[in-house]
Design brief:
By secondary structure, the chain is an alpha/beta fold. It has 16 helices and 27 strands.
């Protein structure tokens, strides 16, 4: 029988100074155990190595509390309301106060899988063209079938996670989708500690969703809303669940740029128990999260129409990218389109809708573990919980990035954003020249090395288009087009060339010159340059339908 403990007792007994602590993501992003770890070790010399696939805004607690010696991650930044570097992370990394080791979602997941299976390494697609190849845990070997990447195991001392249900014996039932799966629970030297929404007598009716057996569980904490401000999609286990508290994530983001200590006291340090934490959040706010995930029957309400007459630069880039996604989807007869976050996913959503209207059976997919989902109007976030019930398949990053993207039976088009893109199509979202950190790869690397083709969407500006990126997050070998607000670059004869510019009143040569002057490298012009029709009202309306507040488009 697994121990059932309070939140405080579970951390006190099972998390130790110097540990490598894995905080599993699932679709929850967070667990109350992470908050309690920060509370108990705050201000001490904990020397923790934190393994966390996506280190969102609440991760600032680990940094401000002085808990960390190292972070192993695929994403370090804010996610709400936009994806952006977090100043607490960037200062700590740039100053060398906390060491950071960058991976992608799939490679990090596979390192945990290697440890879970007791293997000296697992294989992956070659990453020699990426900057990850310099990581000591990566190596590459030549085989008769070609080069193969090898990933060394990553062994946490303990894994902290949130599950939906546990039974009296301590078995854990986890609902999909689940970004990083449960490999960390199997990989951890001592085992895992879990918060759960409920402890039930018997899970035999949901045996197919029991992912972690009791002998790998050190302790269970019954903690309703234990993923807050993350959410719980409970439908597969017939539980109500609740949506993510995006306001709380935004509050954490704001605190990182303001009075971080006051926020930390209110949300962590002065909250002695989980019950105290829920009381501070408030029952009305918690109930709104439940209601948000379970709206009234019928289609979701449409956002108010946007009557802005002019397209922003990002709207122009997204419109042109949506057209490119639609055209390439039809040409490839693609089975799926996987988009990166932000403007890239908005463009992909609109482009896929256009391709489907033209008769394509293409499906949208997302690295969290979604296949065949329908986006939710009014929400530009790629991991919107209200989209989960629409999915034809719910899995994890291994399902999407390992099997669907690059698998021999599936044709996938990738659509990625880029902080920087160079003349080879290499994308950087990790580290700028001079050492200023960005956010990391997420699943971008995995898409870039696995998709059949990749479309990149960005703004055409010198600072975004250096001749060589400082860090290769995603190699550009499969990039066929870079779509921007000032021109469309296509690959011809192995090189990206200016192939189209926006239509306008100025002579074509002037618009070509504007595009060339806006590029940070010596941009070659294709033999023939076509014109991109101005974004039309229905195209802008389709984009704004998902991002009415202009988080990404403005």
């Amino acid at each position: 029988m697994v121990e059932r403990l309070s939140l405080g007792a579970a951390v006190e007994r099972h998390v130790r100074p110097g540990d490598t602590v894995h905080v599993a993501m699932g679709h929850h992003r967070w667990t109350a155990l992470a908050r309690e770890t920060c509370r108990q070790f705050w201000g001490g010399d904990a020397g923790i190595e934190l393994v966390m696939g996506s280190l969102g805004s609440l991760g600032v607690l680990f940094f401000r509390g002085g808990l960390l010696r190292k972070v192993v991650t695929a994403y370090s930044g804010d996610a709400f309301p936009t994806y952006a570097p977090n100043p607490v992370f960037t200062r700590a990394y740039a100053a060398g106060e906390v060491e950071v080791e960058h991976w992608s979602f799939l490679t990090l997941r596979r390192r945990l899988a290697a440890a879970a299976q007791g293997l000296p390494a697992v294989t992956t697609r070659p990453l020699g063209r990426t900057s990850f190849a310099a990581n000591p845990a990566y190596s590459e070997v030549e085989t008769a079938a070609g080069p193969v990447g090898l990933l060394a195991p990553l062994v946490p001392d303990v894994t902290l996670l949130h599950a939906v249900l546990a039974d009296e014996a301590g078995n854990l039932a986890c609902a999909p989708p689940g970004l990083d799966g449960v490999d960390g629970a199997w990989a951890a030297r001592r085992g895992c500690v879990a918060t759960v929404e409920r402890v039930v007598d018997d899970l035999s009716a949901f045996a197919g969703l029991v992912r972690i057996p009791a002998h790998r569980v050190l302790a269970v904490v019954e903690a309703p809303f234990g993923a807050h401000p993350g959410g719980v999609y409970g439908a597969p286990l017939r539980q109500p669940g609740y949506a993510e508290d995006t306001d709380a994530w935004v509050e954490a983001r704001r605190a990182a740029r303001g009075d971080l200590d006051a926020w930390a006291r209110a949300t962590c340090l002065d909250v002695a128990t989980h019950e105290d934490y829920l009381a501070a959040v408030g029952p009305d706010r918690l109930q709104r999260l439940v209601t948000r995930l379970h709206p009234a029957p019928g289609p979701p309400p449409e956002p108010a129409p946007d009557v802005r007459p002019e397209a922003t630069a990002w709207e122009a880039a997204a419109t042109y990218a949506a057209r490119e996604v639609s055209a390439r989807t039809l040409a490839l007869r693609a089975d799926g389109v996987l988009a990166g976050a932000g403007v890239a996913n908005l463009a992909a959503w609109v482009g896929v809708a256009s391709a489907r209207a033209a008769g394509s059976p293409v499906r949208l997919t997302a690295e969290l573990g979604l296949w065949g989902y329908t986006p939710t109007p009014g929400s530009p976030f790629i991991f919107e919980f209200r989209s989960f019930p629409s999915a034809e398949l719910l899995g994890d990053a291994e399902t999407v990035l390992g099997l669907l993207v690059g698998g021999p039976g599936t044709v996938v088009l990738g659509c990625l954003g880029a902080a920087e893109v160079d003349d080879r199509g290499d994308v950087n979202s990790t580290l700028l020249a001079g050492g200023r950190p960005l956010v990391g790869a997420g699943g971008g690397t995995d898409v870039a090395v696995g998709a059949d083709e990749v479309v990149v969407v960005t703004l055409l500006r010198p600072e975004r288009t250096p001749r060589r990126v400082a860090y290769v997050t995603a190699p550009g070998d499969r990039v066929t087009a870079v779509v921007t607000d000032r021109g469309l670059l296509r690959r011809r004869d192995g090189r990206l060339r200016l192939a189209a510019v926006p239509a306008g009143a100025n002579p074509l040569r002037e618009r070509v010159r504007t595009a060339v002057d806006s590029c940070g490298w010596d941009l070659e012009v294709d033999r023939e340059v076509s014109e991109l029709a101005a974004p039309e009202a229905p195209e802008l309306a389709a984009l704004r339908r998902y991002d009415p507040q202009g988080f990404f488009l403005c």
